[in-house]
């Protein structure tokens, strides 16, 4: 059937174009990758009623339902009303009547109002994993109403520990759960288990004092992984009750200029992380002159320059005493070169800060 389809409008509604003309894939948000199993029945219903009977676990932990015909999108959106209200609105506290801090009238049967801020992904965190330093999906649900809905693009990955199973280093804004350790020498057996764990799986900052048979620590390079806590048989190492986070900035994949993110904040509390993200919309709007484009956070930082980014993103944020902020950041992008004797492909040069 020949029909005119506004691909951009449909995409804004969280539908992705298929290679089959007139067919689309719905991306259902699952903030933090954790949702009640009862919603699997909804996935099945959509897939079998309007899709091709299949769904894909999206790389951003969305339920991607394939094979939806363009003419069926209104019916799918109407069916999504309860899911969006229960997951995004009730569970995460998202205000669907506001997009990028601007009021709008949201029709509950119109589906998602925007695809701008991507679904926040997370590993399982300390809900289950013995390495986890934080509850990742609870943090994701607190972040969701800050960044969504918005036409400004940002990708956020949350990892429960420095193992970074969720690739916080490869997105616009990566959050890693870290811990401050407390050493209790009166409990220490001098067995050296923590030293061996740090040496094998972390940054080798622990050593066994041969005179006292207690542990010496060089705090310079501790990444807050908690391996010493896991290894100790006598609980001589414990995590501080306060949760801390490392924030990684400006990482990205892609064809043209992929790069690994760099550390922006270290030992930041949850309040600091949330405060920083509350300034993300303001920063994005400033860089883009209040005209949203399909550009992700790393590219926006490149446009503004790190100094200006830091000025805006930390505005009004009260840093906790332990929090460290990068003085400057220099990203290293991949430079593709030919196997032949020709000049390397010219890298795109970003504009400097605006006056």
Structure commentary:
It is a single chain. The chain starts with 6 loop residues before the first helix and ends in a 30-residue tail after the last strand. Strand 3 and strand 4 form a beta hairpin. Helix content is 26%, strand content 17%. The model is unreliable at 347-355 (pLDDT under 50). The chain has 355 residues and is α+β, with helices and mostly antiparallel strands. It has 11 helices and 16 strands.
Brief summary of the model shown:
This protein has eleven helices and 16 strands.
Q: Would you tell me the structural class of the helices and strands?
A: alpha+beta
**Oligomeric state, counting identical vs distinct chains:** single chain
Q: Assign the CATH class of the largest domain.
A: Alpha Beta
Helix tally equals: 11
Keywords: 4Fe-4S, Heme, Iron, Iron-sulfur, Metal-binding, Oxidoreductase
Domain 4Fe-4S ferredoxin-type: 179-208, 211-242
Organism: Lawsonibacter faecis
Pfam family, one: Fer4
Q: Any descriptors?
A:
six-stranded mixed β-sheet, four-stranded antiparallel β-sheet, Alpha-Beta Plaits, 16 strands, Sulfite Reductase Hemoprotein, domain 1, 355 residues, 17% strand
Topology:
Elements: H1 7-12, E1 15-17, E2 23-28, H2 40-49, E3 55-57, E4 63-69, H3 73-79, H4 81-91, E5 98-99, E6 102-103, E7 121-122, H5 136-147, E8 156-159, E9 173-178, E10 181-183, H6 193-201, E11 206-208, E12 215-217, H7 227-231, E13 237-239, E14 244-249, E15 262-268, H8 270-278, H9 280-287, H10 297-304, H11 306-313, E16 324-325
Parallel strand pairs: 7-8, 8-9
Antiparallel strand pairs: 1-2, 2-4, 3-4, 5-6, 9-14, 10-13, 11-12, 14-15, 15-16
Helix pairs in contact: 5-8
